[in-house]
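Sample intake — 7-carboxy-7-deazaguanine synthase
Collected from: Aequorivita aquimaris
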Amino acid sequence: MKKEVQQLVDKGVMLPLMEEFYSIQGEGFHKGTAAYFIRVGGCDVGCHWCDVKESWNAELHPPTAIEAIVENAAKYSKTIVITGGEPLTWDMEPLTEMLKEKGMQTHIETSGAYKLTGIWDWICLSPKKMKLPTEEVYKAANELKVIVFNNDDFRFAEEQAAKVGPDCILYLQPEWSKREKMSPLIVDYVMQNPKWKVSLQTHKYLNIP
């Protein structure tokens, strides 16, 4: 990447854009909501079960001016979901400021592993064992979504729930490849621990991108 472009990316006025698309939010509190998704490249958290590993290497995704990203988003929806990769790898302040100037609702899906930047109407925190969230993100999270891949993830979920605010909504979501095994366990766990809710990747059941 050219030095001048890298400087713009570092400032958050260009971002490595992997893809952008209009779809239905399939997970968590806002499931069923039409939203415009902005997927930003770059992530070093390294979940072995990640279903978008092609997002990890930011170098593979073209640095794109945030003006162009916002212009595209404004054509489709008032609800904007910024995801990755790990979007907090980059400074989200310039992009979210521009989106808010257009009157849009800004949502982020993040592992919380990096400094919280940006102006957010909704923060979905999905923590990972390999790189835990910052204290700042725990306090700001509106929903906590823990992916359940194995039995130890229930223990991890409780550890994470103890760190978020009292109004944070708690979700357990089966990892897609383990859904048949883990979903019944999640159902039992939620019935025994009703502070939790079940989250499913409903867009995959509906064959929605």
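Post-analysis note: The helical segments are 3-11, 66-74, 93-101, 135-140, 152-161, 179-192, 202-205.
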